[in-house]
C-alpha cells in the first residue's frame, strides 16, 4: 500500500485530505510543523510527500531541500503561495508538482495519482554524474574533483550539471539561461509579506471547503437533493474564490508589490485574446463581440494585466446586455495616446450610480446582476492606472455604456 507524507498546519485541510486519500486506498501521516515533520520523516518510508510552504516554524521549501539530500521521492507543493517566483523556486529546489490553494479535490487526486504512477521511476533515476576525475552526487548536491570536495556557487553547480548531462553537445543560450533562471534560493519580498500572509489565511480554509464539498457530492450520488445543494455550494465557493483572487490582486497593486513585465504588444492581438475568452459564452447567450481597429497599433504594457483589465470591462458589458446585444472593442492611436474603448448597447447605468461604479464592492440597488461582487471595475481601474493610463465612462440609460481607456504613448 502506498504511504503518503503530508506537511500542513491547517487541521481542517489535514482532516479533509486524509479522508479523501484513505478512500483512494493510501495510507497517510501528517505533520503540522517542521519539528513534527523531522520526527516523522524517514528515507524510503514514504512514496510521496505533500508539502505546504508557509508553516509556523519554517518553510516547506526548506523541508523539500532536506528530502532532496537523501531521497528522490516525488514532492508535491500544496500552498497559497501563488507568485511565479514561488512556483519556480519550488520546482527548482526539487519539487515535482505545485498546486495553489484553493483547489478542487478531483484535480488534487488526479495529479497525486499521476505522480504515484511515475514514482517507481524516481528511484531508478541517475544519482551521480561522472566525467574524467569530476563526480557530482546529485542527491546531496556535492561536487568532487579527484576525491576532493569543491565549493561552488549555485550558478556554477547548475552549469556544471548541465554540461555533464549533455557531453559533447553544443548548448544554446536559451538552454543555459533556462538552467540559471532564479538561481537564488533565498528569495524574500519583504513588501509583500503581509499580502502573502493574508493570502494564506484566506485560501487555506477555501481549499478545505472545496475538499469537503467534493467529498459530500461523492458520498451523495444516490441522494439528488444533497447533490443539488452540493452543486449550489460549489457555485458559492467559486464566487468566494473569485472574490479572494480579485481582492489579492487589488491589494498587491495598491502595495506596489507587482512588477509589470512591459513589452510592446499588438493591440489587435490583445483584443482577439479577450474576444476568444468570451466567444463561446457570448454565443450561448445570443450576444456578439465585435472588434474594430488597425492591426499595426502597439502598446507598451504588461500583456496579462491589460488583458485582465479589458476582460473585466467586457464581462461587465456582457452582464448588462440582453440577448441580441453587441459589445464592441475598438482601439485607435493618436499622436500622444493609444485609446481602447469597450462599448455595449445594454441597459446602461443610472446617473446616480455613474460616479460610484469604480468604488470597491459598490452595487447599485437597481442591478440585475445577482452574481457580481463589485470588484471587476475597480480592479480594471487599478491595472490601467498602474500603466499610467486613465479610464472614463459614458452611459445612457436604456441605450448602453462606453468605457474609454487612454494610455500615454511611452518608450522603454
Structure commentary:
The chain is an alpha/beta fold. The protein is 45% helix and 21% strand. It has 13 helices and 18 strands. A five-stranded parallel β-sheet has the order 2-1-3-6-7, with helices on both faces. Strands 13-15-16-18-17 form a five-stranded mixed β-sheet, with helices on one face. Strands 8-9-10-11 form a four-stranded antiparallel β-sheet, covered by helices on one side. Helix 9 runs parallel beside helix 13. The longest helix has 32 residues. The chain is globular.
Key terms for this structure?
globular, five-stranded parallel sheet, alpha/beta, 412 residues, 45% helix
In short:
Helix content is 45%, strand content 21%.
Tally of strands = 18
Strand arrangement, major sheet: 2-1-3-6-7
Could you give a short account of the major beta sheet?
Answer: 5 strands, parallel
Uncertain runs with pLDDT below 50, 5 residues or more? 182-193
The overall pLDDT average reads 83
In DSSP terms (H or I, runs of 4 or more residues), the helix count works out at 13
* C-alpha geometry: globular
Instruction: Give the radius of gyration.
Output: 26 Å
Helical content band? 40-55%
β-strand amount? 15-25%
SSE map:
Blueprint: E1 3-7, H1 11-23, E2 27-31, H2 34-40, E3 48-51, E4 54-55, E5 58-59, H3 60-70, E6 75-79, H4 84-92, E7 97-100, H5 105-122, E8 128-131, E9 134-137, E10 142-145, E11 148-150, H6 154-165, H7 173-180, H8 193-219, H9 224-255, E12 263-266, H10 267-284, E13 288-292, E14 298-301, H11 303-319, E15 326-333, E16 337-344, H12 351-354, H13 376-386, E17 390-396, E18 400-408
Parallel strand pairs: 1-2, 1-3, 3-6, 6-7, 13-15
Antiparallel strand pairs: 4-5, 8-9, 9-10, 10-11, 12-14, 15-16, 16-18, 17-18
Helix pairs in contact: 1-8, 8-9, 9-13, 10-11, 11-13
